[in-house]
């Protein structure tokens, strides 16, 4: 079976089998995953596996999730070479130095995850019906997307009942990074925002939301046990809407009153 890549999607030949177990050749578009090498101020090198669309928002969100930038003005420039799969990023010197230290002190090929101060207090609270309404708005957002934009996973950020940004991807973490990047590029700080996802959270994702100062995550699936531990430490309330209209609160329960 052959494939042909265009505009972030790859056209592939597939076999569709109907209820009568009869197979028919067809063509379908799937996300075109590529491994991009990222250089930050020529000091730090890492990789991201992603579709080559909305690269800037993906990289900005990654930097926010790593806790080295908070605002758009700390991000200076991006140069993307799609042919060589290289992304060169320029950020402010203090942000670049912080990332370089984590690269030097971390395991080979990984960034260190040092302790960082909790970025939210206990103020933000929502009524259960407000949580349910946000979850419903998020579901409508997903259904409103064009079919070729509906990759497997969707994330968004909201405040006061309004969804400010969204990001999609065939990796859960990439969807979250894109949504974070779109938020910051729009001039909206991530601190105190509410994350919405159509997936559950892992430790890695909970840690990055905590670094960004997010206070609540409304998810369509349960989180991992390790994600719950991180969430409790950083006052991140994780709520799942996985079973019917029932809400399940896994951490920081005082936020849902």
Concise structural overview:
This protein is an alpha+beta fold and 257 residues long. The protein has helices at residues 55-65, 93-105, 128-144, 172-185, 203-211, 225-233; strands spanning 3-6, 9-17, 23-31, 34-40, 44-50, 75-81, 86-91, 153-159, 162-169, 194-197, 216-219, 237-240, 248-249.
Structure description:
The chain has 257 residues and is of the alpha+beta class. It folds into 3 domains: 1-32, no CATH class; 34-105, Ubiquitin-like (UB roll) (Roll); 128-255, Cytidine Deaminase, domain 2. It contains 6 helices and 13 strands. The protein has helices at residues 55-65, 93-105, 128-144, 172-185, 203-211, 225-233, and strands at 3-6, 9-17, 23-31, 34-40, 44-50, 75-81, 86-91, 153-159, 162-169, 194-197, 216-219, 237-240, 248-249. Helix 1 (55-65) crosses helix 4 (172-185) and helix 5 runs parallel beside helix 6.
Strand order of the largest sheet: 9-8-10-11-12-13
Shape: globular
Task: Tell me the number of helical segments per DSSP (H or I, 4 or more residues long).
Answer: 6
Q: How many strands?
A: 13
- Please give the domain count: 3
Mean pLDDT: 87
Report strand %: 25-35%
Class of secondary structure makeup? alpha+beta
**What's the CATH H-level homologous superfamily of the largest domain?**
Cytidine Deaminase, domain 2
- What is the chain-wise order of helices and strands? EEEEEHEEHHEEHEHEHEE
Under the CATH scheme, the architecture of the largest domain is 3-Layer(aba) Sandwich
Give the biggest sheet. 6 strands, mixed
Radius of gyration: 19 Å
Uncertain runs with pLDDT below 50, 5 residues or more?
A: 1-6
- CATH class call of the largest domain: Alpha Beta
| Amino-to-carboxy terminus distance | 54 Å
From the 3D structure, determine the CATH topology of the largest domain. Answer: Cytidine Deaminase, domain 2
| Helix-residue proportion | 25-40%
């Amino acid at each position: 079976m052959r494939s042909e890549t265009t505009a972030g999607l790859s056209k592939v030949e597939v076999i569709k089998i109907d209820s009568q177990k009869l197979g028919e050749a067809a063509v379908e578009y799937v996300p075109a995953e590529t491994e991009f090498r990222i250089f930050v101020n020529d000091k730090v090198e890492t990789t991201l596996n992603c579709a080559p669309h909305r690269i800037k928002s993906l990289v900005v969100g990654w930097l926010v999730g790593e806790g080295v930038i908070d605002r758009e003005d700390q991000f200076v420039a991006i140069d993307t070479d799609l042919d060589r799969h290289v992304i060169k990023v320029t950020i402010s010197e203090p942000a670049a130095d912080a990332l370089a230290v984590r690269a030097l002190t971390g395991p080979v090929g990984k960034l260190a995850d040092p302790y960082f101060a909790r970025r939210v207090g206990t103020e933000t609270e929502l009524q259960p019906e407000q949580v349910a309404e946000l979850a419903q708005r998020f579901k409508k957002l997903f259904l409103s997307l064009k079919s070729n934009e509906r990759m497997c996973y969707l994330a968004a950020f909201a405040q006061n009942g309004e969804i400010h940004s969204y990001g999609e991807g065939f990796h859960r973490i990439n969807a979250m990074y894109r949504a974070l990047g779109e938020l910051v590029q729009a001039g909206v700080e991530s601190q105190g925002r509410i994350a919405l996802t159509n997936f559950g959270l892992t430790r890695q994702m909970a840690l990055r939301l905590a670094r960004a100062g997010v206070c609540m995550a409304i998810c369509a699936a349960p989180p991992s046990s390790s994600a719950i531990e991180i969430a409790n430490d950083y006052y991140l309330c994780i709520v799942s809407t996985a079973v019917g209209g029932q809400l399940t609160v896994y951490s920081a329960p005082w936020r849902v009153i």
